[in-house]
Amino acid sequence: MIRGATSCRLTAWFAKAALPVLAGTALAGTVLVAGSSASAQGFHDTGDDIRAHEDPDDFTFELHGYFRGRGESLTNLDLDRGVGPSGDPLFAVPLDDPRAQTLYQADMRLRADVSVYAPGGVVAIHTRLDVLDNLTLGSTPDDIPSATVGQRALDNALHLRRAWAEALTPFGLFTLGRQANTWGLGLLANGGDCNDCDGGDVADRVAFATPLLEHVWALSFDISATGPLGRRASGFRAVDLTPTDDVRTLTLAWLRWHSDAARLRRHVAGRTTVEYGAYLSHRWQEGDVPASYLPASVPVTPSASQVVPRGLSAVATDVWLRVENRDVRVEFEAAFLYSRIAQASLVPGVLLRDPVTATQFGAALETDFLPRDSAFTFGFDAGFASGDSAPGFGAFPRALQASPQPGDLDGPQATLPYDTTVDNFRFHPDYRIDRILFREIVGRVTDAFYFRPHLRVRLFDAPFGALSATLFGVTSFAVEPSSTPGGDRPLGVEVDPALTYQTREGFVAALDYAALFPLSGLDNPALGLGASPAQLLRLRLQMLY
Question: Is cis: bond before 417, omega within 30 of 0?
Answer without folding.
Answer: yes
